[in-house]
Amino acid sequence: MATQQEQAYSSLENAAMPLPQSLKDAPKTEKEPAVILCIGMAGSGKSTFMQRLTASIHSAKKTPYVVNLDPAVGKLPFGCNIDIQDVVNYKQVMKQYGLGPNGGIITSLNLFTTKFDQVLDLIGKRSKELDYVVFDTPGQIEIFTWSASGQIITDTLATLHPTVLAYIIDTPRSSSPATFISNMMYALSILYKTKLPMILVFNKCDVVDASFAREWMTDFESFQEAVRGDEESGYMGSLVGSMGLVLEEFYNALKVVSVSAVTGAGMDDFFTAVDEAVSEYKTDYRPAMEKKIFDKKEALKKSREENLSKLMKDMEVGGGAGSKKDTSTDDFYDDDGADDDDEFNVSLEDRSTNSAGEEASFKRFLEKAAK
Ligand SMILES: Nc1nc2c(ncn2[C@@H]2O[C@H](COP(=O)(O)OP(=O)(O)OP(=O)(O)O)[C@@H](O)[C@H]2O)c(=O)[nH]1
Ligand SMILES: [Mg+2]
User: Fold this and answer.
1) How far, in Å, from the CA of 65 to the mean position of ligand 1?
2) Where is composition skewed (Acidic residues) in this entry (predicted)?
């Protein structure tokens, strides 16, 4: 029986979507590594979490494949299989294109994305032995989540492997209701955009325990109370309060864990959340993606049929009208290399000359008859 991965490949191919040759050749295996994309605000602890994540995977005797997508990180705090810094020199890109730091990072990521099929090839070749493929992303969150290359990378990975988002939150910096809600709104926008299963990872819980966040997410009243007692919220308090109400539904769709990338606390909970998110991917995301591909294929088929029937109708009209047929026949035999439009004009002139000649000859005939 075909695996889900094989079905996804074949539905992509059948949908006549351009699938890179490398992906077509990629081995299709029963075992699917889970892809974890670490995203989060600058300084939230993504890279430290990556280090902890790979260490935990190794100590569980499992195999990770580690990819760094941050071109500006410098020295990596974790060992990795693919480093964007080996492919593009971020400082050189800035200099060459006259860009600032963010423009340089975006352009470097764009350049790297053009080679992403090779990354997929490498992952594909080893996917049998891999358990997790983990990605670190650039410091500025929007560079990955709101750029074309970020979307291409996310979508391509999600098409081929169970993919989950680990949204890393700096817990100490989110302890005021206003910053907390801003962070949640950002997470919501990413969830809405990607539709992928998301895990909220409250990091740095060795500094501030994340129990306040869990309470705010499950008990609306406690959040309202915090908003009332928060001087920072000020006149924005009622907006922050209403946002809390709006986001209640969103919280239900999320898995929440609190960890410390430094001490390693909470990593077991994180892996349990990843397992749940992978199941969610298989039951929700993948069927929705396959339906999208199917719908696209059907729409393409329908538009082809419509165009074909329109063409047939046009041909019927062309066949019935004598003048049209003559013109097209002239055109068809035009093999003298002359420009078609000129030829078309010449032909019109010829006809008018002929009819003028006919008229003159008819006049002469009448004059003769009258004599
Ligand atoms: N106490 C504590 N500090 C942490 C933890 N995780 C990260 N940090 C610290 O937070 C700072 C930022 O960590 P990074 O891992 O560089 O964060 P990042 O999100 O990768 O940063 P950018 O890529 O620059 O956006 C560093 O000083 C880390 O040591 C944690 O769990 N506990
Ligand atoms: Mg980092």
Assistant:
1) 21
2) 329-344
